[in-house]
Design goal:
alpha+beta, 5-stranded antiparallel β-sheet, 2 helices, globular
């Protein structure tokens, strides 16, 4: 697998969703608060799963919990413009999925930020505290396989 470009572009992503920014999303320095980036990553992934599977993913016997996140920041963004979130999957394992989420604002073809988001699937039948790792549900696997970018 080749190295990704330093700054991803719109063509690096497969699925898209737009988020409306809010006044409170900006911090005291006048740009999007770091925590808000992570909320957007979570929303991009889980909204895609809801739409693509047609089920309430929280009610499945196996649920995806976040095992790893990260963010590379390239330029400032913030209120009042909407943010376009591009989603792609780098890897689908037996019980894990590695996503990348690009955030774009305005007409720029280059991402303002890119997140890495890893879901690991666990058995949810006994609730929190007793959730062993388990294979992901077939409905989730089918949905995320559509997000894999074919090797070129």
């Amino acid at each position: 697998m080749g190295e990704r470009p330093l700054r991803p572009t719109r063509t690096d992503y497969v699925a898209w969703r737009t988020a409306t920014t809010r006044w409170r999303d900006d911090d005291a320095y006048g740009h999007l608060n770091n925590a808000t980036y992570y909320e957007l990553f979570d929303t991009a992934v889980n909204a895609y799963l809801y739409d693509a599977t047609g089920v309430d993913v929280r009610a499945l016997p196996q649920i995806g919990v976040v095992a790893e996140t990260g963010c590379r920041y390239f330029r400032e963004i913030g209120f009042p413009e909407p943010i376009e979130m591009g989603l792609v999957v780098d890897k689908v394992g037996t019980s894990s999925i590695v996503y990348r989420i690009g955030l774009f604002q305005g007409a720029s073809d280059e991402a303002a930020a890119e997140g890495r988001f890893v879901h690991v699937y666990v058995d949810n039948s006994n609730g929190a505290g007793a959730r062993p790792v388990t294979p992901m549900p077939d409905v989730v696997r089918a949905a995320v396989l559509r997000l894999l970018r074919p090797e070129g």
